[in-house]
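hey can u run this one w/ copper (II) ion bound, need the structure tokens asap thx
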Amino acid sequence: WPTGSIEAKSVSRLSSDQMPRPFRVPFVQAPILPPYATGTDPADGLPVNYYRVTEKAAVANILPRLGTPVLGYNGLFPGPTISLDRGTKSVVRVRNQLPARHALDGHALSTSTHLHGSASLPQYDGYASDITHPGFYKDYRYANAQPARTLWYHDHGVHFTSLNAYSGLAAQYHVHDPIERRLLPQGRYDVALTISDAMFAADGSLGYDDNDHSGLWGDVILVNGKPWPVMKVQKRVYRLRILNASISRALRPVLSTGDPLVIVATDGGLMPAAQSVSNYRHAGAERYEVLVDFRKYSTGQRIELRNLSNENNVDYDFTHKIMAFDVTDEPVDTSDPTWNRIPTVLAGSETMSLQTGQSIKTRYFRTKRNDATNMWTINDDSWRDVIASGYKRAVANPALNSVEIWQIENSSGGWFHPLHIHLVDFQIIGRNGRGPFAWERGPKDTVYIGERETVRLLMKFTPHKGVYMMHCHNLPHEDHDMMVQFRVGLRESDVDPNDPMTAARPVWDDV
Ligand code: C2O
Ligand code: CU
Ligand code: CU
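ok here u go:
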């Protein structure tokens, strides 16, 4: 496993009685949905869900006896889960009712909401510089035309994504379809787990320390905003939709029993075939859907989900625990066909059936750190360069619907980068001259690239023309300034600097 030279500095300042202990907090299972209305699109008759999501300051109960100020969608930490069927469009009205400035560093709380995992139209993609100021709202429109998958929405405000997402502006978003509904557990057995790490100041507020742009390494693990919770489970198969929403930390989940984790879906949805692993590496922003079979355990048995390793070279005692499951004798509904189903063959997808022979071009990228400025780059480019060019500069210009291979080499000595490409799903076709890890053999939009590693990605640039971002999802790296853009189906002279930035302008919110 990769090693690194990261220095750990980010430790909570809580006294020992304020510091939470693993496995005291019960897990709240039912996801909170945002309020919404249903309707029909007059243009094509397709159903539309209209969601209301308000960004606001709130106080979360995370620690014993101390409140934690957060920024949350609808005041929740993490935010409410959106769940709908493929083919149902959505309009998400995101109102920015945040204070003018962040309490920790005073940066202006202007936000841009990105639906990560979606082939959104450019002007609704959460383009970093397409910001909505406090007091305004923007309606984000999504087609939800892709196969079932676990997505998430989070803030992408230019140069402050890291602190904004860390403060709570992150939530899951699920698209269902009939194939996935038939194969995998649904409802209360389809469990969203949003994992993050945090550090706390002595007064209970979130601590933030981006270690000179390298990352934040908290010593408290949160699952759905609770430290090391425990969840009651029946003796049946559960589906865990695991999102690592840590702004920097990568995890290596493993069960305390050593029993298998059956990976059934990656970022872009179902894999062609399930992959049974004893542990797997899970970087920030990646989503893995995992089946765990609790049938064989006895009533009262506790199974822990642990974090096996030091993926970051930055670990603290309790970051080796994530959460626990307590097995109950609650009767199992065996008329639900997913109660004991561990499918092996899942579903093909367009992305996974792409062949390397379809590629018309291979492009080469290199990630680097500039040691003089502590800034991160991709092919020596950064978001500053994009801004300076009037949003015209791009690292690649694939044609619409073309298939390409992108080879990315990490030569930033001692650092790993979870690299994320907007718009597309990709297939990982190579890692250091070999194939991908078992758990990566599904459609992806974020890939872990360890130090000195080279990955090869195969993708089709569909379904929209536009200008899209590619960046590191270690968010302090993204903010400092490891983010570039590529143009799909456009020449530089076609790029209107007002699009995607202001094509749909935020509107004053007088409600
Ligand atoms: Cu999850 Cu461009 O981000
Ligand atoms: Cu994204
Ligand atoms: Cu990085």
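Residues 114, 116, 420, 422 surround copper (II) ion (ligand 2) (CB under 6 Å). anyway lmk if its weird
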